[in-house]
Design a protein that fits this description.
With 376 residues, this protein is of the alpha/beta class. The protein is built from 14 helices and 12 strands.
């Protein structure tokens, strides 16, 4: 069986975990948390990076920072993981779903103005598959209407928009380090605070609503409860694993790009014959080989290929069920029609892509995809 994903370890992880234990501090914000945060701050040019226990918690921390309240509205795509919407709903606000573009499966910026109301507080663009949204268009709308922008860059580590790292363009950015991401700590995430004026408040909310971070820096003689917050800090055990991954980031990205290119070359003849469509990229997007998907002509053909691959030992999977079609959204917010989201989501199939996927395995996947269409 070729799995959809396989967690990769480089060898130094256990050494770093032992080091964290020997330091006497395995709770958050120790040596390895600081190493990871400093690495991302330097690499991406961000004023502050705060590690979190998940990408979901990074989004929830962002929603707290925006002071979202019941009655507020936040525009986002429906074709995203539930965490994007949960962060808003947990504050009592309403997710307003925008349809996506066929070109890159990202939010269609041309539709944004028609979704704005006096209750709109923020835009949550999602960089699907590590491919940049039209951030200039999004930031223009946000500036005109004085809206916050939170980039859901869960899949976007080391990808870019016109040379700028994803997650660094909006007011806040969110990464995920889940085991399926390019770089992983098992479960984890990060909040990128791009506005220096809210760094201190972000630290407070992340530290259970206390000014504990200032206390540890020696800026106050004791810490206390300052405002509402929660515990968003990952343990040093997780951070130690992440640090090892960060040290190998160039190696990881090089290998993933090679796999992506092999899929592209191997499956291009099928695209030319009209059997499927390969990923497409706007000129402004520098992708990170997070995902390789194919779009089939119909949901029936997508399911047929998925079943065929599974029968031959290859686990390929579909992606999100659009959130506007979920029982929870329909019950709480009613019916919405998003034609592009509905038809594209039913045709998409993701192929295995992970660091240790061998060249032989890649060619095996390509061979079985070709065989599916040859047999038909």
């Amino acid at each position: 069986m070729i799995p959809f994903n396989r967690q990769n370890l480089f060898g130094e992880e256990l050494e770093y975990i032992r080091d964290a234990f020997s330091s006497g501090k395995v709770s958050g914000d120790g040596k390895y948390t600081r190493l990871c945060s400093a690495f991302m701050e330097k690499r991406f040019g961000v004023p502050k990076v705060l590690l979190t226990t998940s990408g979901s918690h990074a989004l929830e921390l962002a929603a707290l920072l925006l002071d979202l309240h019941p009655g507020d509205e936040v525009i986002m795509p429906s074709f995203t993981f539930v965490s994007t919407a949960n962060a808003v709903v947990l504050r009592g606000a309403k997710p307003v779903f925008c349809d996506i573009r066929g070109e890159d499966l990202n939010m269609d910026v041309s539709l944004l103005e028609g979704l704005l109301t006096p209750r709109t507080r923020a835009l949550f663009p999602v960089h699907y598959a590590g491919v940049a949204c039209d951030m200039e268009g999004i930031m223009e709308v946000a500036a005109k209407k004085k809206l916050f922008v939170v980039e859901d860059a869960a899949q976007g580590l080391d990808a870019s928009y016109k040379g700028r790292p994803l997650g660094t363009i909006g007011h806040l950015g969110c990464f995920s380090f889940h085991e399926t991401k390019n770089v992983s700590m098992g479960e984890g995430g990060a909040l990128l605070v791009n506005d220096p004026s809210i760094v201190e408040r972000a630290e407070i909310i992340r530290e259970k609503g206390t000014n504990r971070a200032k206390f540890f820096r020696g800026e106050v003689d004791k810490y206390t409860w300052v405002e509402v917050g929660s515990s968003f800090l990952p343990s040093e055990i997780n951070a130690a694993v992440l640090w090892c991954q960060m040290e190998h980031l160039e190696e990881i990205q090089e290998r993933r790009m090679a796999i992506f290119e092999a899929y592209s070359v191997g499956l291009e003849p099928l695209e030319k014959k009209g059997f499927l469509r390969l990923p497409a990229f706007p000129e402004y997007a520098g992708h990170n080989a997070h995902m390789f998907y194919v779009l089939l002509p119909s949901e029936r053909e997508r399911d047929g290929l998925m079943d065929f691959l599974k029968a031959h030992g290859v686990l390929a999977v579909f992606h999100y069920v659009p959130l506007h079609q979920s029982p929870f959204f329909r019950k709480g917010f009613g019916e919405v029609r998003l034609p592009e989201t509905e038809q594209l989501s039913g045709r998409l199939l993701r192929l295995p892509l992970f660091f240790s996927l061998s060249d032989q395995e890649v060619q095996e996947v390509i061979g079985w995809v070709k065989r599916f269409f040859t047999d038909r």
